[in-house]
Design a protein that fits this description.
228 residues, alpha/beta, Rossmann fold, 7 helices, globular
């Protein structure tokens, strides 16, 4: 049985991804900052909860230590936690956006690597965004061209680059970034756009369930590899 950790998984795409992977037979750990919400989400779908704040080194270390103690290895890591950072541009806002969307990826991935290396088919999925694609945001034919989300775009570009670099440094582990599609979540509520989180989670699940010969070092959406 595959053990999977999903960060920021008590709601939205993370929760729906957890639900679908539980249905596929994975032992899923829902990582969430809030214990009450996380425990409820896990109980609702037959997953397990682990307290995890991607901006807190001690929280991350404790979460992975718990999974290591309980399971011995980790087959799939989904770096899903993220924030929109749609606020006034200043230093603190920038630090917060990068801390969650990019540095959080490093914290969790570094803590998870020893457990991933014990798995037969280790896979890491970064829930990134086409807003972090230089190609998309400079293409007048794309919706991203007209969305001025500077901190979100820059931090997601960083997350995708980190994914590619981790793939190069760890040839035995598949690392891929994914644009799950514009989704109606708390994050996008102000825009009033997006499809169901259930539909977008299917894109994440596809990359989380790759075979041993699956791709690595890519940014993909539901149509395949995305330029960036």
């Amino acid at each position: 049985m595959t053990t999977t950790l999903i960060t920021g998984a008590n709601k939205g795409i993370g929760f729906e991804t957890a639900k679908q992977l539980v249905e596929l037979g994975h032992t899923v750990y829902i990582g969430a900052r809030d214990t009450e919400r996380g425990e409820k989400a896990a109980a609702d779908i037959g997953a397990r909860f682990v307290q995890l704040d991607v901006t807190d080194d001690a929280s991350v270390s404790s979460a992975l230590a718990r999974i290591g103690s309980d399971e011995g290895s980790l087959g799939v890591l989904v770096n899903n936690a993220g924030i929109l950072a749609n606020e006034a541009l200043d230093g603190p806002a920038a630090l917060r956006a990068f801390d969650v969307n990019a540095v959080g990826f490093v914290r969790v991935t570094e803590a998870a690597l020893p457990l991933l290396r014990k798995s037969a088919n280790p896979t890491v999925v970064t829930v990134s965004s086409s807003m972090g694609s230089f190609w998309a945001v400079t293409n007048p034919d794309r919706a991203e061209y007209r969305m001025p989300l500077a901190l979100y775009a820059a931090s997601k570009a960083a997350a995708t680059m980190l994914t590619v670099q981790y793939a190069k440094a760890n040839p035995g582990i598949k690392f891929n970034a994914v644009e799950p599609g514009t989704t109606a979540t708390d994050m996008t509520a102000a825009f009033g756009i997006g499809r169901s989180a259930q539909d977008s989670a299917k894109v994440v699940v596809r990359l989380a369930t790759l075979g041993v010969d699956g791709p690595t070092g890519t940014l993909q959406d539901e149509s395949g590899v995305l330029a960036w």
